[in-house]
UniProtKB/TrEMBL annotation:
Identification of the protein by name: Bifunctional (P)ppGpp synthetase/guanosine-3',5'-bis(Diphosphate) 3'-pyrophosphohydrolase
Organism from which the protein derives: Oceanihabitans sediminis
UniProt cross-references to SMART domains, sorted A to Z: HDc (SM00471), RelA_SpoT (SM00954)
Transmembrane segments: none
Keywords associated with the record: Hydrolase
CDD domains: HDc (cd00077), NT_Rel-Spo_like (cd05399), TGS_RSH (cd01668)
Length: 738
């Protein structure tokens, strides 16, 4: 770099630093500014030799992260300093955590240490390193929630500046973001950041879908703005008559939420009815806040008819993230549904800043328990289960990160918040672990219900307990919350261990009769022989009698034969099963279809049943432990979890031209029933030379029909063409592939 370039860059760094102080949500004292300045100087020194992939000086990254922490999340000076220093210890041998503590005090050092621990992990681990990484991060919730919040800000800036990375890295990072960081941001109440993380995640995991929706949103923006203007004009006069101090703005829904609606409702972009929301934000004092919200509600519903099933009152019962608002969906002009969100300025700040705004609006000396603290306390028990496999741990933790909430009552009339889909078992464990473990049954609104019964908002739940009741494995099918599941798993593990210990002794005696010693080698052989996962499974099955004498004798005889067959294979140097020669042509055709990795190698694979890929679909290979390579569609429901937890087992894959093999696919149709419709459909498929129809079934109900067609095709293009032609048949409304 020339001297002029260096000067320009230094000026840009100084400007970015000044901007950071200017945009801070909190009022910074002189002491705060000194602390931030000191952190900035240390960060500049530590990163002076580093550059990002894009070529810019690395220091711009910690400044950007600190700016997100200061402006968008609204944290204090301590957090801003920690954000500036978040990569210092990890990236620079000259600085240790002890140095940070000496320079900035214990709190900043603890946060920086937490952030450093998250980023470093042991490369020898046989479990998913990324899941282990997530587990470490989630466990830091116990220490200081600011660690997680700064990590979310760090991830947001990385997602915003990912263009110069390799495509496979982009997909891995975007999948992790959708898998854990966006749900975490949602749970901490950082809704704006959550939406941006989701949109950026979609941008890199499904670029075509993202760009398509983005283009359509840009095209319809002008028309949407006019509609919002027309809608607001109607209610403005009435609001002004009441002398209310308010602001109305339209807000488009995020690309990710539109995409989710399209998938969940099986509709196209144009058929998603609430692509935007109208937000009314009013100024008020604390005494009139609730009263004015309902007054505005009544004015809006005087002009537009509300949808009675779509009223959400989060003012009387705020969400556990602290979110407060009134949401109503009304029938606007031109017969279109419009979501209206009514919030005071205080509620709006809490919706946008979450944790920080709660802190600001707490009266000094007031001991109102912070929602975030309550949530972390609830989670601590779920986090205590350290023994779980890392992937299970993260999956279990994720269970109630994104869930919608319901509110149920105890027999005494206290209100409890639970995730949507919760059962009486979840309710029992939310009261107390002992109540959960002794549950015998449950009454909902005075009636006995099964433990699998899904609770609804407003239910009153009474748990019946018994000293003799014990958790059974079935309970895991009924419980949905992380807390309940972890407690049930722990209780089941305890009882399994007792049976397994007895089983181990039984196994030792039985093997002695078969002249086999019970040691590590023989245990590993039996685990493989009986296709089990762990030695505990083996001892437990012997203890319960699932593995009996006959099965053990079979194992003993297979053990003596194993050595002989091993020698034979060594001598012939051929696979023991030689079916390849018989079906060589068929197999060659199958394995000519897909190639894997940069070298475009032809490898054996199986198609995943969860998403049924066919040639032409965007796919990737996943290296399983027992079944070789499984091929999944890029938008498979399991893709984000696999890409996120097992990135090191993902193989890039692409189809190569081949017309040798047929692939099954299922099409679902619906529409208005009319005479001859089935005839039209079968004629159209029969006329298509490259599609073979395997089965067809139709149901008609009061003039509306739904049908399933199973076809066999060579590739995706033929299927798309067939679906396009089916849509043209008179009476058919929707055609989609399962």
């Amino acid at each position: 770099m020339t001297e002029v370039d260096i000067e320009k860059e230094n000026a840009a760094i100084t400007k970015a630093y000044k901007e950071l102080l200017r945009v801070s949500y909190r009022t910074l004292s002189t002491e705060d500014k000194k602390l931030i300045r000191k952190a900035f100087d240390v960060a500049v020194d530590a990163h002076k030799e580093q550059r990002r992939k894009s070529g810019e000086a690395y220091i711009f990254h910690p400044i950007a992260v600190a700016k997100i922490v200061a402006q968008e999340i609204g944290l204090d000076a301590t957090s801003i300093a920690a954000a500036l220093l978040h990569d210092v210890v990890e990236d620079n041998e000259d600085y240790t955590v002890q140095d940070i503590e000496r320079l900035f005090g214990e709190t900043v050092a603890k946060i920086v240490d937490g952030l450093t621990k998250i980023s470093t992990f042991n490369a020898d681990m046989d479990v998913s390193m990324q899941a282990e990484n997530f587990r470490k991060m989630l466990l830091t919730l116990n220490d200081d929630v600011r660690v997680i919040i700064i990590k979310i800000a760090d991830r947001l800036h990385n997602m915003q500046t990912m263009e110069s990375m390799r495509a496979d890295k982009q997909v891995k990072i975007a999948s992790e973001t959708l898998y854990i960081y966006a749900p975490l941001a949602h749970r901490i109440g950082l809704y704006n950041i959550k939406s941006e993380l989701e949109d950026l995640g979609l941008k890199y995991t499904e670029p075509e879908v993202y760009n398509d929706i983005l283009l359509k949103m840009k095209e319809s923006k002008e028309e949407q703005d006019l509609y919002i203007q027309e809608f607001t004009e109607v209610i403005k006069n009435s609001l002004d008559k009441e002398n209310l101090n308010y602001d109305i703005k339209g807000r488009p829904k995020s690309i990710f939420s539109i995409r989710r609606k399209m998938i969940n409702q099986g509709v196209s972009y144009d058929e998603v009815y609430d692509k935007f929301a109208v937000r009314i934000i009013y100024k008020t004092d604390a005494a009139n806040e609730k009263f004015l919200a309902w007054k505005i509600y009544s004015i809006v519903t005087d002009h537009f008819r509300p949808n009675p099933t779509r009223l959400r009152d989060w003012i009387s019962s705020p969400k556990s993230t602290g979110y407060e608002a009134l949401h109503i969906t009304v029938m606007g002009p031109k017969g279109r549904w419009v979501e209206v969100q009514i919030r005071s300025e205080r509620m709006n700040e809490i919706a946008e800043k979450g944790y920080a705004a709660h802190y600001k609006y707490k009266n000094k000396g007031e001991k109102s328990e912070d929602n975030l603290d309550t949530w972390i306390n609830k989670l601590q028990e779920a986090l205590e289960n350290h023994g779980a496999n890392a992937v299970d741990f993260v999956e279990q933790f994720k269970l109630n990160l994104y869930s919608k909430e319901i509110f149920v009552f105890t027999p005494q009339g206290d209100l409890k918040s639970l995730p949507k889909g919760a059962t009486p078992l979840d309710f029992a464990f939310s009261i107390h672990t002992e109540v959960g473990l002794k549950t015998r049954g449950a009454k909902v609104n005075g009636k006995l219900v099964p433990l699998s019964h899904q609770l609804k908002s407003g239910d009153q739940v009474d748990i019946l307990t018994s000293e003799n009741a014990k958790p059974t494995p079935n309970w895991l099918d009924y419980a949905t919350t992380a807390r309940a599941r972890s407690k049930i798993k722990n209780a089941l593990k305890e009882s399994t261990k007792i049976v397994a210990e007895e089983g181990k002794e039984i196994l030792r005696r039985k093997l002695k009769q078969l002249k086999i010693t019970l040691n590590e080698d023989s245990v590993n052989e039996m685990v493989n022989h009986f296709k089990l996962k762990t030695s505990l499974d083996l001892f437990y099955r012997v203890g319960t009698g699932t593995i009996d004498n006959t099965m053990l004798k079979e194992y003993a005889s297979s053990r003596s034969n194993a050595f002989v067959s091993y020698l034979k294979n060594k001598i012939t140097r051929k696979p023991s099963i030689n079916k390849e020669e018989l079906d060589k042509e068929e197999i060659t055709n199958k394995y000519d279809l897909l190639v894997f990795g940069k070298e475009e190698e032809k490898l054996d694979y199986k198609l995943a049943v969860c998403c049924n890929p066919i040639p032409g679909d965007a796919v990737f290979g996943f290296l399983t432990i027992k079944e070789g390579i499984k091929v999944h569609k890029s938008n498979c429901p399991n893709a984000v979890s696999l890409q996120s937890n097992y990135a090191y087992r993902i193989l890039p894959a692409k189809w190569i031209d081949s017309t040798q093999q047929d692939f099954p696919a299922q099409i679902i149709l619906s529409g208005i029933d009319n005479l001859g419709l089935v005839n039209d459909i079968t004629k159209l498929i029969s006329a298509n030379m490259n599609v073979n129809m395997k089965s067809i079934s139709f149901e008609s109900n009061d003039g509306v029909f739904s049908g399933k067609i199973n076809v066999v095709v060579k590739n995706k293009n033929l299927l798309t063409k067939l679906m396009d032609n089916l849509k043209k048949i008179n009476g058919i409304d929707k055609v989609k592939r399962v």
